[in-house]
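Hey L., structure's done. Input below.
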Amino acid sequence: MSSSSVLTSIALESLPKLTSGKVRDLYDIDDKTLLFVTTDRISAYDVIMGNGVPSKGAVLTQLSAHWFKVLSDRIPGLKTHFLTLQPPAGLSAADKAVVHGRSMQVRKLKVFPVEVIVRGYITGSAWNEYKKEGTVHGLPMPTGLQQCSKFPKAIYTPSTKAELGEHDENISPEQAAKILGDKYASRIEELALKVYNTAAEYAAERGIIIADTKFEFGLDEETDDIVLIDEVLTPDSSRFWPADEYEVGRDQNSFDKQFLRNWLTSEGLKGKDGVEMPADIADATSARYLDAFKRLTGKTLDEALNELRA
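Output:
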């Protein structure tokens, strides 16, 4: 996909749009089904950039679908919202062309209002808090951790789910339990850690460290099942590090949008609205996403999209 095919705005004729997020647009198919359409928009520090990243929407969609299959195979009884990468039958030919490769049909569920973050390594906001307080999300941590150290075991560190334009806030598991309710809080924590550890093992076999990641969960109100939803283990929702370059005590090279965050910070643009990325920054971000995709799936994005057409 070339830069000319970058899609930051999508308007389907065949389905009613329900909402637009930072990256995804949601369309209503029927009482039980949604169409997730992933644009090439990218946000950093909770601000959407003025331009998009080539191939990003397809990478996020195809990689999430890959993970849903891998995780379902490796975790008995795991429920996900994923149905199919094929577009719904009622879509017009023009709309099908727009959403090809960047959309998935998913189940409609009640969404839990917490960002479920699991950290295997100390970096980002967790490292900043630890340096000041010796804690992460208010949880006491071992002394002597260095930047990007691996935790003795992965930790559950939730955050609030902010409205568009607002900022997520790190909260403790106890605060999350008050939001989620005791009935579901411990089940969500247990499931999130299991999914992370399973994914981390799979990624390690392919030369990638998953330093941390963000999950979302929904509730199937008919069965009371907790269901893994939204995007899963993508370069947008995770920090991916090349295992062969990993070194404690410094910032890591990465296959995710940390590259973009670093550029924004160095240019004094962190948190500013309306920023347009130079073409080289957008293309370099795209290259990192495509590299992660190939390492994790064993195929190029073009190969995955051609399989979808077959």
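The CA atoms of residues 12 and 95 lie 6 Å apart. The chain has two domains: 3-109+281-300, 111-264.

-- N.
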